[in-house]
Amino acid sequence: MRVVVTGGNSGVGKATAASLAADGHSVLIACRDVEKARQAAATMSGDVEVAALDLGDLSSVRAFADSVPTVDVLVNNAGVMAVPLTRTADGFESHIGINHLGHFALTCLLADRITDRVISVASATYLFNRLHLDDLNWERRRYNRWSAYGESKLANLLFVAALRERGMRAYATDPGATDTDITRSLNMAEHPRIRRLMHTPAQGARASLQAVTTDLPSGTYLAPRFNQLGRPKVTRLLRKAVDPVAARRLWELSAELTGCDWPG
Fold first, then answer.
1. Which domains, from first to last, does the chain contain?
2. First and final C-alpha spacing in the chain
3. Tell me: the pLDDT tens digits for 32-54?
4. Care to name a GO molecular-function term for this sequence (predicted)?
């Protein structure tokens, strides 16, 4: 299969891309840092290509989408976590802009060329947040970087629910607590004992890899057995993550903000 992995140059995305390529799939790593992606691809066996994609810039998203003739599986993996208040090239708050709106636009632009399924990498942090559709870009609220991240992950889950309703096979996955560049930059794995407990990137990639080939119903959420640790299992989502009204409202707002929508 032809698989596009966003953010496949490091961490869980890199492990996902490497495993898929080793299994014989044709993999396209799409990310902002092309040189880092080339270095990552050089360590992988199999058919691996690299292309530029900045999810924080809709012009880059459109240019990348225009360059892709077909894709069987789209893995929406890239993202930012707990960054200070910054805005994308299009003026969106970075978490919602990159983690959700960039991937929303990419998926819509590729919709008529995705032959199989879409996988969105989410997070258990959605549990502790609610989506503020009246202030998606944090223009009227006091900014909290963890809440911003959690809201973007809730948006990922609602996006999967909306894709399912539109007839696209879609899955949500959660890598769990994983030792990656992002978690290390946030000092989340400072203590050696904590770091030993965390998933390796390869372990964190298990849910997404399972989602690539599973026959489970569209909309299924695969997350670690023990919330943050353990092998992935089918996990029930809270109603707020599958609420059809919220999913529809988020879709309409996302389409308005990005200028992208589902074909037809």
1. 2-258 (3.40.50.720)
2. 26
3. 999 999 999 999 999 999 999 99
4. oxidoreductase activity
- Give the distance, in angstroms, between the CA of residue 123 and the centroid of all CA atoms in the same chain: 9
- Is 149 a known active-site residue? yes
DSSP code per residue over 60-102: HHHHHHHT---EEEEEE-----S--S-B-TTS-BHIIIIIIII
Task: Report the alpha-carbon distance of residue 108 to residue 9 in Å, rounded.
Answer: 23
Lay out the sheet containing 229-234: strands in order across.
Answer: 48-52, 26-31, 2-6, 71-76, 114-121, 169-173, 221-226, 229-234
Residues written for the chain: 264
Neighbours of 93 (CB within 10 A): 22
Predicted structure pTM score? 0.93
Q: Mean pLDDT in the chain? A: 94
Mean pLDDT, range 150-173, rounded to an integer? 98
As to burial, measured by CB atoms within 10 angstroms (0-12 exposed, 13-18 middle, 19+ buried), residue 186 is: middle
Catalytic residue among 126, 143, 149, 221: 149
